[in-house]
Amino acid sequence: MAIIKRRCKRGLVTAYRYKSPTHCRKGRLSCRESAACQRLDEFVADDINDYDVSRDVPHLHATSQLSAYLTIGTISPRLCYLQASKVQEKLHGNDGDNEDIDRWISELAWRDFLSSCAGR
Questions:
Q1: CATH class of 30-117
Q2: Are 108 and 88 in contact (CB under 8 A)?
Q3: Alpha helices in 12-118 (DSSP H)
Q4: How far is Cα 68 from Cα 8, in angstroms, rounded to an integer?
Q5: Domain map of the chain by residue range?
Q6: Quick check: 52 and 106 in contact, CB under 8 A?
Q7: Which residues contact 76 (CB under 8 A, 6 or more apart)?
Q8: 3-state secondary structure of 68
Q9: CA 96 to chain centre
Q10: pLDDT band for position 57 (50/70/90)?
Q11: Helix (H, G, I), strand (E, B), or coil: what is residue 4?
């Protein structure tokens, strides 16, 4: 557990306890492709099946936490889609109907679309 101290507008110091993500070391995010792929594998293995419900609950750390990697281009949305599709096919066969995985793929597609509209 790590403690973050934040100074508020009124000069008060607030301490937050949080579980440091496994892909961060000493509060820093590694920008290597191997770290991005490791985080993607961890998310697909552990959190993607509960994504639709738990993504809106901040203390669960159930989001993919791949945003930084996608932003700087360390990992591609296409690779993320392929990994999620493999899990969906493995778990649900040809039906491929899993709301959690479908939601994450949908948000990944919207993220990619909106970043291309922004004219990076």
A1: mainly alpha
A2: no
A3: 33-46, 51-54, 67-72, 77-92, 99-117
A4: 26
A5: 30-117
A6: no
A7: 70
A8: helix
A9: 21
A10: confident
A11: strand
